């Protein structure tokens, strides 16, 4: 072995050993005993064994704080306000907290270890989040990398949610993944079918949950869901909805539009839906959305391809979806009508759309989004 490698390898080994010793020492020596978790000023009080992260402890008591990464500290979703002293913010928390949240002692519950009694505040609606047992009813390939997964809730059970919200799919241990994890997916189903839930799941290379879905999930398998979560929803205003999505960002909109049609909600709200893809192989639900456009005169569907191939004979709009959006806002959508934005997709796409929308007189406070990596 090269002498140049011995030093770094030895340092890494020593660091790993020290981390293991610290973890074992904390577990064996530091017996924190029973601690009290006071939630929302005594609305709920828990007596629990100390030593574990707050996120998992709450989940064990059927209080589910949203966590897209399964408690690994990489999503920043599991925020709670802590009203007692648990020490300073950790470096693993601060990237996900804005100055106002820092000043109010908002913390990531997955990063807080329960060592003593604690007082916290959470949104009241989290008391009504549940874990659901379900069975996979169908799996449909929408594209080469997007599956529609439809599950039937058991026992019987019903889930109450607003179109635009999401649920967390519980992924069991598999292959070299030693622990169960949860991942968040927007529900594409209609609330009018409360015993069913649908997801549009896109394969993420190396993704723990999506790899499991594409490799192992089969019709008839039992699964668990936790939900509903999220604030993404249609707002009851006269403003036109300017909606933009790509890929599996279709999910919340597919729920919203069908629910609006079924219940005739927001009947005076004009809807423009821009859906961007690279080529036709990335497009899906085209026939269904075009049929919806015929059934709902106030609904306008604008699919666009950024890299259409000549042999595809694409006759729709072309270019980046942000360029298509900008052109329609300037040339085809009534400029005198108030507008609000609805976005679902990657942070880059959402940020670019916000720039286009604000330049076209849509106030940033009237732009709502569901952002995922």
Structure notes:
With about 375 residues, this protein is an alpha/beta fold. The chain has three domains: about 90 residues, Beta-grasp domain (Ubiquitin-like (UB roll), Roll), CATH 3.10.20.30; about 100 residues, Translation factors (Elongation Factor Tu (Ef-tu), domain 3); about 130 residues, Rossmann fold. It is about 25% helix and about 30% strand. The protein is built from eight helices and 17 strands. The strands form three sheets. A six-stranded antiparallel beta sheet has the order 9-8-11-6-7-10. A six-stranded parallel beta sheet has the order 15-14-13-12-16-17, sandwiched between helices. Helix 7 runs parallel beside helix 8. The chain is globular.
The helix fraction, in percent, is 25-40%
Give the CATH class of the largest domain. Answer: Alpha Beta
Superfamily at the CATH H level of the largest domain? Nucleotide-binding domain of ferredoxin-NADP reductase (FNR) module
Q: Helix-strand pattern, N to C?
A: HEEHEHEEEEEEEHEEHEHEEHEHE
The CATH topology name of the largest domain reads: Rossmann fold
Query: Whole-number radius of gyration?
Result: 23 Å
**Architecture of the largest domain in CATH?**
3-Layer(aba) Sandwich
Query: What's the number of domains?
Result: 3
| Major beta sheet, strand line-up | 9-8-11-6-7-10
- State the end-to-end CA separation: 40 Å
Largest sheet composition: 6 strands, antiparallel
Mean pLDDT comes to 90
Q: Stretches where pLDDT falls below 50 for ≥5 residues? A: 1-13, 18-23
Structural class of the secondary elements? Answer: alpha/beta
Number of strands: 17
